[in-house]
Write a structure and sequence with these properties.
This protein is α+β, with helices and mostly antiparallel strands. It contains 2 helices and 6 strands, in the order ααββββββ. The N and C termini lie far apart (80 Å).
């Protein structure tokens, strides 16, 4: 009987003392370096804002995840045009850093109906004047 009482008391003590803090998604997202861009959908011929963050970067290419508009979850592949400075002389690239890319995603995340979407996108990283 003592073992049962001791087990119950220890369990209650550990349960009340080991409380985890609340996870705040907003604070986590504030630490993620989100990039803004513009996406042109080849399916419905509309221009929408795009928000994404880089998952992998290598040799001027980057794989991004994000969303377009309000209800399209996308994956995108970008190429940093600054890497073209080594290949060809383009005067405009001295003043701006941009990335061109293509995206593919699912639309209608907030609805029962879901469809595919794809298109081209551009992100303006920095303007140097």
């Amino acid at each position: 009987m003592r073992k049962w009482l001791l087990t119950i008391c220890l369990t209650l003590c550990l349960t009340f003392s080991a409380q985890a803090e609340e996870i705040k998604i907003g604070e986590i997202l504030d630490k993620v370096p989100l990039k803004q861009g513009v996406a042109y959908s080849l399916c419905d011929s509309e221009v929408r804002p795009m928000t994404s963050f880089s998952l992998i970067k290598k040799a001027g290419f980057s794989l991004d995840a994000g969303y377009v508009g309000e209800d399209k979850l996308v994956a995108a592949v970008f190429y940093e045009l600054g890497e073209l400075k080594n290949i060809a002389e383009i005067p405009l690239l001295e003043f701006i850093d941009i990335e061109l890319g293509v995206y593919y995603g699912l639309e209608g995340i907030n609805k029962w109906h879901s469809g595919e979407d794809y298109g081209v996108t551009v992100k303006l990283l920095e303007v140097k004047f």
